[in-house]
Task: structure prediction
Amino acid sequence: MSTFINFAIKSEYGRIAELGDKLGEVEKLIDWEQFRPILGDLYSNKTDKGGRPNLDEILMIKMLILQQWHGLSDPELERQANNWISFRQFLGLPDKIPDRSTIWLF
Result:
């Protein structure tokens, strides 16, 4: 994602955070990196034939958390993660939001 777009999203998110963002509060409470060694072994598509590179494990687990907390289907999670600034901020402003089939496969 371009630097300008990141700047715009962060600027707009500042207004949302002032109003109270529960996802922002949760983000500060959890050390997400502690999950990387556990998830890294479970989430791998490395084969002799190659394959599409994995998306970040932490991004994917955060996607599933959002899905569960908000009761979203895979297609709706993809839609909302692209739409809601608070979701994008919680996910770490990724360059690419996982699509519905990637979410399902994870």
